[in-house]
Specification:
With about 230 residues, this protein is of the alpha/beta class. The chain is built from ten helices and six strands; from the N terminus they run βαββαβααααβαβααα. The protein has a single domain, classed as 3-Layer(aba) Sandwich (Rossmann fold), CATH 3.40.50.
Length: about 230
């Protein structure tokens, strides 16, 4: 049985975020969930009986760890993190005071805060039409308070982490600290790797499906040749 990818986007995006990656996945099937930041939330069903590879981008990885919406067979982080805010045992996170300041500003000028953040991520001319301010505010609270590290330990470590060396949101130190013992693969681009380097991401996803996941489950059909660089 061939695996299927469950794709969960980050804060401020929607399911269309994954379009460049999905276009180069070829025969590797995917389902993209929408957390409702820009449109009503939508969670298309994942076909039963298929090995599931859950893939979270940025906040999407933290959301998967916290919500555990279904059982998966492998977990992949792209520009993600199990914890975002800094703490005594997580010094490389974003300082809490900066997140609290962002939350306070968002309550006053949500669209300005949204545009500033998306621009920092690398999005050109981010639109604000259709924003769900409550969903976005709830997401900021989650970034401030959620810690998925214990859940990650209980579920088994992340199988693969794809990270950007020039990521302006998730620093290399934050990635290394959050994913100790995980297979981390680095790209020179930033926070939007599924858009900036879709072939590279697709290649690593295919290798995971055709290698470690196939060996773990036994007998699944290969996902096909892996495009992109090593």
């Amino acid at each position: 049985m061939t695996p299927i990818l469950l794709l969960v986007h980050g804060w401020g995006f929607d399911a269309s975020f994954w379009t460049p990656l999905r276009e180069v996945l070829g025969d590797l099937e995917s389902v993209a969930w929408d957390l409702g930041f820009r449109r009503p939330p939508r969670f298309p069903p994942v076909p039963a009986g298929r090995p599931v590879v859950a893939v979270g981008h940025s906040f999407g990885l933290l959301w998967l760890l916290h919500e555990r919406p279904l059982a998966w067979h492998a977990l992949v982080s792209i520009n993600g993190f199990p914890r975002f805010s800094a703490g005594g045992d997580f010094p490389f996170g974003v300082p809490s005071r900066l997140l609290e300041r962002m939350m306070a500003r968002f309550s006053e000028t949500p669209e300005t805060v949204y545009r500033d953040f998306m621009t920092r991520c690398g999005v050109r001319d981010p639109g604000t039409q259709g924003l769900d301010h409550k969903a976005l505010a709830d997401g900021l609270k989650a970034l401030r308070h959620w810690d998925g590290r214990s859940r990650m330990a209980g579920l088994g470590t992340v199988d693969l982490a794809l990270a950007g060396r020039t990521d302006p949101i998730v620093s290399p130190d934050m990635t290394a600290s959050g994913f100790a013992g995980t297979d981390i693969r680095w790209h020179e681009d930033g926070h939007l790797l599924p858009r900036q380097a879709p072939e590279w991401c697709a290649g690593h996803l295919r290798r995971l499906c055709d290698g470690p996941l196939r060996d773990r489950l036994g007998g699944i059909e290969p996902a096909g040749a892996a495009p992109g660089e090593e």
